[in-house]
TrEMBL record:
InterPro entries: LysR_HTH_N, LysR_subst-bd, WH-like_DNA-bd_sf, WH_DNA-bd_sf. PROSITE patterns: HTH_LYSR (PS50931). Pfam families: HTH_1, LysR_substrate. This is LysR family transcriptional regulator. The keyword Transcription applies. Residues 3-60 form the HTH lysR-type domain. It comes from the Bacteria. Keywords: DNA-binding, Transcription, Transcription regulation.
Amino acid sequence: MGVDMKNMETFIQVAELCSFTKAAKKLGYSQSTVSFQIRQLEEDLKVQLLERINHTVALTEAGRKVLDYAHQLDRLTMNMKKELKPQPFITGHIRIAMADSLACWILQDHFEAFRRERPGITLKLMTASTQEMFRLLNQNEADLVYTLDQHFYNSDYIIADEEQIEAHFVAAPDFLPVSSRRVPVRELIQFPFLLTEKGMSYRRLMDEHLAQLSLEVRPVLEFGSADLLCRLVTQGAGISFLPDYVTEPALLEGRLIRLEVPDFAPQLWRQLLYHRDKWVSPAMQAVIGYFSGKSPAPDSRDSHMLS
């Protein structure tokens, strides 16, 4: 049984004013329109709501009960409209599963600026392997995934933003006992390596590329923080394979060198994705808009912040 909410609103006015004429004047309707709406409501509910005797209007017993429900519906409608009313700024909580080094980049270089830009949005960043990211996305435990891996495409996901990222083997300038920066991969893997955990994004790409050559690296240290690995490499602790945006500051300061390794060029991509069935809320759209096109870069504190 459907009830027209406009008819219910008219009924409230007639009941409270005890007059069709006064209700019509308040609502800006003709008296015949008010009478029609009340008759239609009575037909819908199959009860008589009002008694009309000598130009007076009184509620029937059923009318009093319906009036109570009408007030409840009116309050619910007002609350709903209040909740859905556009806010002065966007609010929401967005969960992002991402590669560890991207999380460090966001927190160190962009979080303060993002908070100034979107004070009503809170973020939950979850670092995980690429496989785990998509598990979280598929189970709606993450709203977005921010990968740093091989190029990923699947029709189940929408690519909100993507960019190819360079990565290189790096070492301290005086670490290698050779003057040339061009090192064959078979020679390179004889040195101690500091790497992110096995199976994690660019580490996995490196391992897969080496496996094609029947080679393997056994690192002396495995750790999730790319920034810490970079610092250890500058101290001469070993060699690492890291994205350029992590190593660029140390490279510019002369504390690191990039090694040229012939026939070794894994394709690394930064991709921001969400499930095609996911409702893109205003908060989620704001997060996508903010981080899309923001390439991790050494000068990101200056050139990529929003004013």
